[in-house]
Amino acid sequence: MEIKELTASLVNQKNNLTSLLNAALQKQKALVNFDYAGLEDSITREEKAIAFITEGEKGRIKILSELYSRYSISNRTFKLSEFLENTRGLLDAKSQKQIAVTEKELKELITRVSMVNQQNKFLIENSRAFIKETVSRILNARRSLLDKKV
Fold this sequence. Notes:
The protein is mainly alpha-helical. It has a single domain (about 1-145), classed as Up-down Bundle (Methane Monooxygenase Hydroxylase, Chain G, domain 1), CATH 1.20.58. It has helices spanning about 1-30, 35-70, 80-85, 95-145. The longest helix has about 55 residues, at about 95-145. It is elongated and about 75 Å long.
């Protein structure tokens, strides 16, 4: 039963990460298009996805703890690859493969989310620098305009 719970938990995490990726992509589009409402919506969606991911991780760790107890395994690490290594021969091949495939998909999603977040960070930093430079030039232009004698 717990193996089915673990695989269901992993699939749920995959869905949560997909939601986070979509929200990050939405944020990117909003940043590029100067869409404030879209930006707020994407941030709200990201926050919800992160909350679901956090809860999902707590559930996954609880399930892994129960499985370690069930199989009397003392090396309790919560990495899926190490769990698969520790339970080799204890789980059926189908479950092992399903967990391994889902783990790979999760890692790919995490990599994609990280990449999009780095791109968003770059967009935000460049936008801030552009705004700072623009404000600085406007203020310098005003001073020189006000200091000139007519």
